[in-house]
Amino acid sequence: MKNDKIKNIIFDLGDVILNIDVPLASQSFAKLSGKEQQEVLAIFKEKEIFRQFETGLLDEASFRNYIREIIHLSDLSDDAVDTAWNSLLLDLPPERVSLIRNLSKSYRLFLLSNTSSIHITQVNKILKASTGIERLEDLFEKVYLSYEMGLMKPDPQIYQQVLDEAGLIAEETLFLDDNADNIAGAATLGIDTIHVQKPLTILEYLKDYAA
């Protein structure tokens, strides 16, 4: 149901705009290393490598080197690391971009994503191939990325920073995310939320806003 107070919409990226399959990344690294996928997942969790990368504690070179170190593949090329890491990124349906462009006529639109620089480079390639649009920044008033902010959802501070920098009022702002914890984090600040859950997409959740 449409909230008539809403003036601003903040979108998550993965499984909201872009389709993703997170386990594919660990599966790809498992194939490269000859390890079981669960072993790779356990190593990554213990080292918090993705959290470090997605909050900017590791730059691209440090991330690739750390991957080589912890899965014991010193000769793995940069391209091989990037390809495995990007394997979780799937397609970006053009109709979702059309919806966003339509919504931009009536609302201030923002993107807030837990992500890394390697992923964003690839996402922009997928976006251009799918729609002809060069980069995410062409769709939103501002793109907020965890690795640039040094914060990750669901930390309430990341939402507060977006509100403060963009001059948004929480009660006039709608946030869409596929992760229940991220939704809860935003809701603590009074932001209106929609938990995007498959098989529904933003086309269904936002149809009243686009009308």
Automatic annotation (TrEMBL):
Gene3D superfamilies (alphabetical): HAD superfamily/HAD-like (3.40.50.1000), Putative phosphatase, domain 2 (1.10.150.240)
* InterPro entries named in the record: HAD-like_sf (IPR036412), HAD-SF_hydro_IA (IPR006439), HAD_sf (IPR023214), PGP-like_dom2 (IPR023198)
Q: Which SUPFAM superfamilies match?
A: HAD-like
Q: Name the NCBIfam families on file.
A: HAD-SF-IA-v1, HAD-SF-IA-v3
PANTHER family documented for this protein: ALPHA-D-GLUCOSE 1-PHOSPHATE PHOSPHATASE (PTHR43611), FLAVIN MONONUCLEOTIDE HYDROLASE 1, CHLOROPLATIC (PTHR43611:SF3)
This chain's protein is named HAD family phosphatase
Q: Which organism is it from?
A: Dyadobacter sandarakinus
